[in-house]
Amino acid sequence: MPVFEEQEQVHDPDAIARALSVLHISTQDRRWERPWHSHRKAQLLFPLSGVISCESPEGLWLAAPQCAVWVPSGVGHSVQGLEHAQGYCLFVEPEHAAALPEVCCTLAVSPLLQELFKRCAQLPALYDLDGAEGRLMAVALDELSAAPREQIHLPMPQHAQLRRLAQQIIERPEQRCSLNQWGALIGLSERSLSRLILSETGLSFGRWQRQLHILQGLKQLGQGDSVERVALTLGYDSASAFIRLFKKAVGQPPGQFFAERGQRLKTDTTS
Question: Is the pTM of the predicted complex or chain greater than 0.70?
Answer without folding.
Answer: yes
